[in-house]
Amino acid sequence: MDPVRNPYVPGAGASPPELAGRQELFTQAGIVLQRALIGKSARSFIATGLRGVGKTVVLGRVQQLAESAGYRTCFVEAHEDKSLGQLLAPPFRKMMLELDRVGAVTEQVKRGLRVLKSFAGGLRIHHPLGFMIDLDVDPEKGTADSGDLETDLPDMVSAIGLAARSRHTGIAIFIDEIQYLSEKDMGALIMAMHRVMREGLPVVLAGAGLPHVVALTGQSKSYAERLFAFPELGPLSDEESADALRTPAEREGVNFTSEAVAEVIRITQGYPYFLQEWAYHAWNVAHGNAILAGDIQVATEVSLTSLDAGFFRMRYERLTPRERMYCQAIAELGVGAHRSGQIAEQMGSSTRAVAPLRNALIRKGMIYSPAHGDIAFTVPLFENYLQRIKAMGSDPADAED
Question: Where are the bilayer-spanning segments (predicted)?
Answer without folding.
Answer: none
